[in-house]
TrEMBL record:
This is Uncharacterized protein. It comes from the Bacteria. The lineage of its organism: Bacteria, Pseudomonadati, Bacteroidota, Cytophagia, Cytophagales.
Length: 476
């Protein structure tokens, strides 16, 4: 989250939410036009606190977190260099965690959000807020190769408002890599069930010289195929089929972001210059951009690795990691396995060995609801059947599985993109075997699936439930 966020970033937030509304059904209150900053956007901003950095280093990398920036990473360089790659023009840059939830807008304790960011909703940001207030440090530890920091983030669009959650980060140097583990514990008094949103887990802002956005987007991952390079300025989602993305300079060096099993990333560039340092407005951006369903009392952990060096270094690190799953193997024991909902909800956190989902639409003016997987990379030839282990309590007699292909920006509920299967609505667990081999459209690569109630069954939806234990390619 950028303190004086460039208008291009603002355009991303508004147009991006609109673009995804047809898929993810974001709130209808999101404006369709790009607003101008108000003449008076609230109390004046504070002067940023002076840096209070804690450094760790080895023979490859030098890194620091800043206790006056919520413990976010605000310094990263190759060993032997004094050039900081991280952009620090405001408290919304850095390399940090930022989360998103409802309502939109979000007001609390008599505070209303600054106008140009009010549709961000509940938006805890690790570093601080729009007004330059730094987030609160609860505790920290430091040794030669490891940093730990516990932070109470601030709500970005509100004036000095602590978020009702706590973020913890463990940061460890390993050769030319930085391994980060993040845990956020939420404790909101608002128990409303809001829809999932994409998160910044993490967001990475580098200085303008690292303007080259590079990843592999092809359909033959892990075969050393040609990478894609982007130098556009717009905030754009990338389908990264090798689970990494990178920001590089003219010499081909920079930072790669690897996240196991993650295929959804975003990139952008702010400003007009490809020169500048950590206190200049121009910067490049990348993030891990998956959907998370934020509960009022949930706990969310994720890990990622930063690889410092050349494109070869970054890609080789990804190639050395375990390969992502090539078929569905979701077993909902302790968490949602990154599945999420559109226009419906489950019983919430904690997850009691199943997902207990309302099998009906929250908003009946919309065509349907969806129970969606995260992005994946599956070859359909390897998946002749999918098994859904579920208990339906409903008068409906049919359910539907829908799939997307990488070139499609949405789920299309059209022939060739779904299969209906019979269900029994007596509340008893069964394994539903869905035969996909030979089905029209079940070919090539699919990158997401979802479950829903076909429109023909909507008359039976009131009070319907689905308890979902697993979705797998082999019989459970």
């Amino acid at each position: 989250m950028a303190l004086n966020r460039p208008f291009s970033y603002l355009l991303y937030i508004l147009v991006g939410l609109l673009a995804f509304s047809c898929v993810q059904e974001f709130p209808a209150t999101v404006p369709f036009t790009r607003p101008q900053p108000p003449a008076n956007s609230g109390p004046p901003k504070e002067q940023p606190a002076p840096p209070k950095r804690l450094f760790i280093a080895n023979d490859k990398v030098r890194l620091a977190i800043d206790l006056n920036m919520g413990g976010a990473i605000n310094y990263l360089s190759e060993a032997g260099s004094n050039v900081n790659m991280i952009n620090n023009v405001d408290l919304g840059r850095q390399l940090q965690t930022a989360l998103y939830g409802g309502p939109y807008p979000y007001s609390v304790n008599g505070k209303d959000p600054v106008e140009q960011w009010k549709y961000l909703g509940w938006n805890p940001v690790q570093t601080g807020d729009y007004f330059n207030h730094p987030a609160r440090i609860v505790s920290y530890q430091q040794n030669q190769n490891l940093l730990y920091v516990k932070t109470i983030p601030l709500i970005w669009p509100l004036f000095d408002e602590p978020a009702d959650c706590v973020m913890e980060h463990w940061i460890e140097l390993k050769g030319n890599t930085v391994h980060v583990r993040s845990r956020t514990t939420v404790n909101r008094t608002d128990t409303t069930k809001y829809e999932a949103r994409t998160q910044e887990t993490p967001c990475v802002y580098l200085n303008a010289p690292w303007y080259r956005m590079v990843t592999y987007t092809g359909m033959q991952p892990f075969t050393n195929g040609a990478v894609s390079e982007f130098t556009d300025r717009d905030m754009i989602t990338r389908y990264a089929t090798e689970n990494w993305i990178a920001l590089l300079n003219d010499q081909g060096r920079g930072v790669g972001l690897y996240k196991a099993g993650e295929f959804r990333y975003r990139t952008a560039f702010f400003g007009n210059s490809r020169a500048g340092n950590e206190f200049d407005e121009a910067s490049s951006y990348m993030n891990s951009d998956g959907f998370i369903q934020i509960d009022h009392n949930g706990q969310y952990e994720f890990e990622y690795t930063l690889v410092v060096g050349s494109l070869t270094d970054i890609r080789q690190y990804a190639y050395n990691q375990p390969r992502p799953a090539t078929a569905p193997n979701y077993r909902f024991v302790n968490d949602r396995q990154n599945w999420y909902y559109t226009n419906t909800y489950d019983q919430g956190w904690p997850i009691p060995n199943e997902l207990n989902i309302s099998w009906q639409r929250v908003d009946t003016t919309k065509a349907n609801f969806r129970v969606s997987s995260p992005l994946v990379f599956w070859r359909t030839a390897d998946i002749p059947k999918i098994y859904v282990q579920a208990a339906f309590k409903t008068q409906a007699t049919i359910a539907r599985i829908v799939w997307r292909k990488p070139e499609e920006i949405d789920f299309y509920d059209i022939p060739g993109r779904y299969v209906d299967f019979p269900i029994i609505g007596d509340g008893q667990y069964r394994v539903y075997e869905i035969n996909l081999a030979g089905q029209p459209g079940w070919e090539g690569v699919v990158n997401q699936i979802c479950l829903l109630n076909p429109p023909s069954q909507n008359r039976f939806e009131k009070g319907s439930l689905m308890r979902l234990k697993s979705v797998t390619a082999t019989r459970p």
